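tool_call: predict_structure(chain=1)
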Amino acid sequence: MTLGNAIKLIRTAKGVKQLTLAKQLEVSPNYISLVEKDRREPSVGFLRKLAKELGVPVGLFFLWQDTDDPILKTQNMIELRDLLTRIQAMYLRNLDAENENAA
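tool_result:
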């Protein structure tokens, strides 16, 4: 999965439309579309703003990123990716619980 695919997956899972997100981030909806299609590479600053708007850690965008590097395809890296995915899921559940308690 590419960075753009991960961004789109997280955005749609959160139920946020491209137009809404673009307005919140003060960019064009076309830019969001280009990023999600991997036709534009977003800056780290943009990714930080995006993560804040979507309520997720920046690292979540990179958890599923494909790589051709054979070192990163080893069993240890697969296990690490699985662990990070579980940690992210726990973080998001805790965040949701905190938001429910605050409401």
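agent: The mean pLDDT is 85. Proceeding to next step.
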